[in-house]
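1st attempt posting a full record on here, be nice pls
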Amino acid sequence: MREMEKEIIRNMCQYNLKVSRVAKAMFVHRNTVMYHIAEIKEKYHLDPRSYYDLVKLSDIAEGKIKTDIEEKDCCAYCGKVLTKSNSRKFCSEHCADRYEYAKNKQEKKKTNWSN
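the predicted structure (as tokens):
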């Protein structure tokens, strides 16, 4: 599962399935979140706007449940397909920065909960 998908799922859990609040928390447009929700729904056949499906997606995002869906060579954050000449993990510096921001935010939350 890509980092953008994981972040959307985490925020959907945190903000009680409210797409507008998720978009505001992620600093993206609501339609961007809706686009990724549609991709998640198509890819996993689970709807993140449904509570019971969201619980399953949350377990997949945390690695508690393994899926047989194979990832292509794509950006680890946004999912854009990478070209053969582009051997990096991200399609742009923006995606790399957003990935690091999300990673640091999760680590900060874990340390706050452990204290």
